[in-house]
Structure formats: structure tokens, C-alpha cells
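User: Predict the structure for this protein chain, please.
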Amino acid sequence: MGRSIAVSLLKKYLSGDCNVAEVKEVDEWFDSMDAVPEELVGLSDNQRKLVEDKIFERILLNIEAKEQQKVISVPNKSIRINFILWAAASLILVLGTVLIWRYHAPLNLQNKNAKLQAVHIKPGGNRAVLTLGDGSSVVLTEAKIGALANQQNVSVVKTAEGELRYKIHAGSASSDISYNKIATPVGGKYSVVLPDGTKAWLNAKSSLRFPTAFKGAERVVQMTGEVYFEVARNPNQPFKVQSGGTEIKVLGTHFDVMAYDDEAGQKTTLLEGSIHLSSGKFSQLLKPGQQALVDPSGIKVNHNCDLEAVMAWRNDLFIFKDMEIKEIARQLSRWYDIQVVFRGTPSKIAYTGTISKDVELSELLSMLQFTGLKYELNRNQLIIID
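Assistant: Here is the predicted structure, written as C-alpha cells:
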């Protein structure tokens, strides 16, 4: 059994009002826990649930202060939450095995109650518009399951899973090739299987232009935003992705390309196989696990890329690892279709945490609020206050 701690001190800790010495005392108390109580006693079900949720919310996000003046009252240990014992008679709270934060184990927050704000902004979802070769458009969210169009002997089908598939009819596609474009709005995502069997997943505010059949010596597509590719292997017909002034050449491989206009540069991350990047006079061959940053100064390679963080969006997660609020804000803006405004100079604090992308914005903000983030949410405008 761990040592006890005063309820009044825990209340200060949960509200973020502890001084440095008090934070240290609470952290040492967490460290002293070595047993799991069999049950919760002394509180009603509602009171007990409130205690569990408060502690869960408080230590859900682990942030690392990079400003000497900032007091952070979140323990940086890995813990697992099981039971909380409240001895009401003595007003002493004892925690058994508390929460353990694991970078490699995403947390499912959908069943946790967060403090909701007055404004409810829903998360994004499967939303996209398909533009056909004749210029007509299909809103995929509203389209029924089944065949959507037939172009030059190629069928466009929406599956029951909400995926778009291109199927070449028996024989071969017509020699007349038309181009299609799938585009996701802010707050949208979608996946498509191209005529050659290549699979592409589009993140929010992204687009992919491709032919209804790949003819000639190369398979060439153009993209904006962020797209993850699993390219069907064909040594006789290399696959090329064009984005801005950058071209990526592959045979068959898995990789992610992020090319948003509001980011510092274009990032290409390789998961399997090999790819060759070229941008102007610069070129680079990537190996699995590497990430290339393309900007006006050239191509920089990160040899130890965090693949889990890169692929978080594909797994319907936000994964923040040592991430400043400006970068977090860009992700929230694209997924929740909001405008983010900073009142004052954006903080340099680095946030670390994992949360489902299926939660409402207010729930995610509540988690950040427990780490000391101050904000106002007015309709679709998020104001972050320094």
C-alpha cells in the first residue's frame, strides 16, 4: 500500500494550482503506489466516477516544459489506471495502480467522459467529391453503394465500406483515357483503389488526380495535401507521384506524402520498399524508416523517423510527440474545419499525447485544458490564449 496524501493537495493538483514543491509531493505519491485496492469505498457511484475521470483527464496528456517559468503538474511516468480508493472518513485519497502513459499503446477515449464546452464541433469523417472525366461531380458521402459511373470501359464503384474502386471490364480499357480527381474537404478523408490496384488514402483537405486506366511507360498521378500510398508492384511500369515541384518514383512500395501549403515543407515518409525523390536539381533515394523534407534549400533526410506518429491519421488518431501548439492547431484546423487564432505569442511548450480523432473538438480541448492550455471557442473559431 502506498503512502497517503491530503485531499486538498490533490484538488490543487487537479486544478493546476500547485507550486513546484507541491507538484513534487504529488509525483512522489504516485511513485509510492505498490498495490491495487480491491474496491472503491466511501463514495457514491457518481462521486467515484468523478474522481476517476478527473485523474484520468489530468494525467492523460504528458507535456514537457521548455520554458523555465512554466510549472507542469503532470507526472511523466507510465502507469495503468485500475482502481482508486477513497477513505472518506479520514479525507485521505489513496491511488493503487494509477495511469500509465505508453507511447506505443494508443488510448481509446471514446468511453471517457470529458468536460464539454458550450460549443459542440463534430470530428471529420468520410467525405469527398469525385470529379469525372466529363467534368461532372459526385458527392461520395451522399452517393449510394454500387456503380457510380462507367468511363471508357472502366467502372467506378462505391463499396459497402465507403471505399472508391476502379474496375476495368473484361478485355481492356479504351485507348481514350480520361482523368478523374478525388478531393476531400477540410474535415474529410477517403480511400480509393486505382485502376492498377494501387491503394490511396487521402487525409483532410487533399486531392488526387489520376487516369481511368494507366497506359504507356509510366503510371503518373498528381496530389495535394496528404496521401498515403500502397503501390501495386509493376517493374515494367513505374509509379510516379507529382506534388508541386517534387516527383516521387517507385515500383511497388508503401509511403506517405504530406504537402500542405501551410507546412514548412513537403514530407515524404517511406514504410516499405524504396523511392526516389527529385525536386529541381536535388534528388534523394529513401530507405524504409526514412523521411525526406523538401523545401527551397534542398532535401533533408531524417534517418530515425517516428512512423507511428506519421501514420496516426491513417489509424484515426492524433499522436502528439513533443509537438508545439502551433503544429497541433494546424491539425485541428484541418480535421474540425475551424479557424485557429492566437492571442499573444504561441507557447513553445511541447505536448505529448494520444487521442482518437473520433471525439468532438470540445473533448480534445478539455484534455489539453487540464495541462494548462487556455482557450476560447466561439462557433468555428478557436482562440488560444498565451
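The chain is about 15% helix and 35% strand.
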